[in-house]
Amino acid sequence: MNSDIAIKVTNLKKYYPEHKAVNGISFEVGKGEIFALLGPNGAGKTTTVEILEGHRDRTSGEVSVLGYDPKLNAPEFRESIGIVLQETNLDPYLKVEEIMTQFAGFYKNPRNISELISITGLDSFRNYRYRKLSGGQKRRLDVAIGLIGDPELLFLDEPTTGFDPSARRDAWDMISELKNLGKTILLTTHYMEEAEVLADRFALMNNGFIGKIGTMDELRNSKNSTIKFDYNGNLDMIPENIREICSITNKKITIQSNMPTQTLSTLTLWALNENIDLQNLSVQAQSLEEIFLESIKESKTP
Length: 302
Ligand code: ATP
What we know:
Number of helices: 11
Bound molecules: adenosine-5'-triphosphate
CATH architecture of the largest domain: 3-Layer(aba) Sandwich
Order of helices and strands: EEEHEHEHHHEHEHEEHEHEEHEH
CATH superfamily of the largest domain: P-loop containing nucleotide triphosphate hydrolases
């Protein structure tokens, strides 16, 4: 396998007797990349990730993770990956440092515990018992445990579910730091903003298929910007070429444009000539959430 590729999946299928959970998907993840696997409930994400982790058999297809076939479950493979699950059951009475030491015992060459406590922002909590940690601190510890064997590849499942906005941002900083350490990360999350902030590339899954895959630029379609402003005036006053492409809800005007510079120029020239103040004027590139919702809508259209 190309040495720049961490994960290569070709025509992967997982059929249960009653359900085709994964329907022939193919993708690659480059080394050092954060790759987000996204999709609504039941899309097939967990099934795919569990096959990559070696925790589930596949029906057919080729899978290579760091050059290993996960289904063979080689010890070298297990040492090269780290898994951060959505929920972990740890001894509530053990202290952070004790838990880390316990896990370090499972590896031949574990990472330095103090260093890991520091990377994951747990310095002030190293002597806290597990039961005294907040949800966000527990999640940090989960990540620290996932990193203890110094894996090349980390599977991060819903890393910030249940976090408050500030804890979420701290977690994003920590995950970005892992990228700086050269780790490859396969991320699953239901928070589109999180994926957009963290990931280099995205695969949008639905019904066992990958509908779209690529970087943000590659995923954005031609209608790549949204212009919005509030307008109380007479709609007939708006230039015809703008009126034709805008939608109006509750005195808020939204324009989807694949030529935002030109559209904005027409709009602002008109407003200046008419002495109109375009209240709350904003221009935004298409977000991952918009792309995600569009992709699901497309997959439902016969
Ligand atoms: P979520 O976001 O809700 O976690 P997901 O994208 O991870 O969803 P999967 O857990 O991979 O989805 O499930 C995909 C489909 O396969 C679902 O319809 C699920 O019911 C089905 N499925 C998963 N595990 C099994 C199983 N062991 N036996 C039968 N069907 C299963």
